[in-house]
Amino acid sequence: MDDVLDLRAHIDAIRACTDPVEILERSLKLTVSFEPKIHGIALALARLAPSDPDAAAAFEDRMKLRRAGLVEVLGMIEDQGKLRAGWTVRQIADVLWEASAPSSYEHLVVERGWSAKTFERWLIHLSHSFLKP
Fold it and tell me: Residue 97 is part of which domain span?
């Protein structure tokens, strides 16, 4: 799917940005824009993971990479002194990782009827709640 969707080109374009807050926003937007394209596969892997080691490994690999990207960009934001006090990079990464997970998309967009745009706005708003004004 990464090759079909040209994920590497999208990530490279995001990494070309110099402002880490913009990188974070673009990363979350990319997650939301890709989710409808991979949602069925992501849910299938998540549901198969407890009984299928290959599915578990594939799903875990994707989730680790997404979380590592969040940790990286949040570290850059922290280096610029832009994170609110009382939160660590890892805690914020955990929150944004969970909020942007396929299961969150499933609950809010598929089950609750949010539009993808509303889901995206919520993620961006949530991410900004961890930044200094």
Answer: 7-128
Could you report the average pLDDT of every consecutive run of 10 residues in the chain (133 residues)?
A: 65 86 95 84 84 87 89 97 97 97 94 97 98 94
Residue 95 one-letter amino acid = V
Amino acid at 125: H
For residue 29, being part of any structural domain is answered with yes
Let me know if 127 is exposed, middle or buried by CB neighbors in 10 A (0-12, 13-18, 19+).
Answer: buried
Query: Cβ neighbours of residue 87 under 8 Å, at least 6 residues apart?
Result: 130
d(CA 45, CA 42) in angstroms, rounded, equals 5
- In the chain, how many domains are there? 1
- Provide the token pair at 126: 């949530």
How far apart CA 106 and CA 112 sit, in angstroms, is: 8
Any idea what the CATH number is for the domain that residue 98 is in?
A: 1.10.357
Q: Closest by alpha carbon to 128, among 82, 81, 94?
A: 82
Residue 1 belongs to a domain: no
Measured from the Cβ of residue 28, the count of other Cβ atoms closer than 10 Å reads 22
User: Could you report how far apart the first and last alpha carbons of the chain are, in Å?
Assistant: 38
